[in-house]
Structures are given as C-alpha cells and as structure tokens.
Write a structure and sequence with these properties.
Elements: H1 3-22, E1 115-116, E2 135-136, H2 138-145, H3 159-163
Parallel strand pairs: 1-2
Organism: Vasconcelosia minhoensis LEGE 07310
Protein name: Pentapeptide repeat-containing protein
Pfam families: Pentapeptide
Length: 167
C-alpha cells in the first residue's frame, strides 16, 4: 500500500470512527468486545452471537454465518462479507463504510441508522431488510430498489419504504 492510500485509509477510518461515536456507538469498555480487525473469519459460524460493538474492520468474512447475530454498533469498515449469511441479523448503527455485501443474505436484517457509504450489495438478498435512516450511496439505493420487497418482521417496515424507493 503506498503512503497516499495508507494515509487516506487511516484518515477515513479516524473520521468515520469519530462520526460513529458521535451518533451513539457503544462504549469502548464492553466486556464481551472482541476485535476481529484484519483477521480472516471466512466460513466461521457466528449465528445467534452477541457481537454488539465488535470490530470486523478490514476483515475477511466471506461465506461466514451471522444468522440472527447482534452486530449492532459494530465497525465493519472495508470488510468483505461476500456471500455471508446475515439473515435476521441486527446491524443497527453499524459503521459499514466500503464493505462488500455482494451475494450476502440480508433477509429480514435490520440496517437501521447504519452508515454504509461506498458499500456494495450486488446480488444480495434484501427481502424484508430494513434500511431506515441508513446512509447509503444514491446509486446503491437505486440498485437495491430494483429488487426490494418484503416487510421486516421485527420493525414492520417495508424494505422499499425503508430505502425511500419510488413506487
């Protein structure tokens, strides 16, 4: 990584973390907080786990299972959730800048109040996902609206409405 890219990454991470803490991220002194930053967790089973406030920054978690996991307030920046199972996961308030969610299963997931700028959702299943108040790139929203359907069973918010899709 050249110096300019490294500076850009760390500057973005510092700014993003500051924004994330300012909007109510978790307190850093949590007992159950595990740091998966820069690790390879591909294929791991995190289903139903309490991962609230953890960090998966720049982690490789392709094909991992997070079904029903609590990832609220987690840092996912620059991670690869390629084909990950995030069905029914709580992703409320995550900082997911530049994350690859391509091919992921986000069925009935809650991404409310998430920051997911420069993230991609190519071929992700978003049926019943709730993106209310999430910050997403306009282009990604337009792509997501093309396949948005369903209603989140927890929040009772239609996926299309949560994305602000035009009918």
């Amino acid at each position: 990584m050249d110096l300019r890219r490294a500076f850009s990454f760390f500057f973005g991470l510092i700014i993003g973390l500051g924004m994330w803490v300012a909007i109510g991220g978790p307190v850093w002194a949590q007992e159950n907080m595990v740091d998966y930053t820069l690790t390879d967790q591909s294929g791991m089973d995190f289903s139903g786990k309490n991962l609230s406030g953890t960090s998966f920054a720049a982690a490789e978690v392709r094909d991992a299972n997070f079904k029903g996991a609590d990832l609220s307030g987690a840092i996912l920046t620059k991670a690869s959730f390629l084909r990950a199972n995030l069905a029914e996961a709580d992703l409320t308030g995550v900082f997911a800048d530049r994350v690859v969610f391509d091919g992921a299963d986000l069925t009935n997931a809650r991404l409310t109040d998430a920051i997911a700028t420069s993230s991609t959702f190519t071929d992700a299943n978003i049926t019943g996902a709730d993106f209310s108040n999430a910050i997403l790139d306009r282009y990604q929203v337009s792509l997501l609206c093309q396949r948005a359907k369903g209603v989140n069973p927890v929040t009772e918010v239609p996926t299309r409405a949560s994305l602000g899709c035009r009918d």
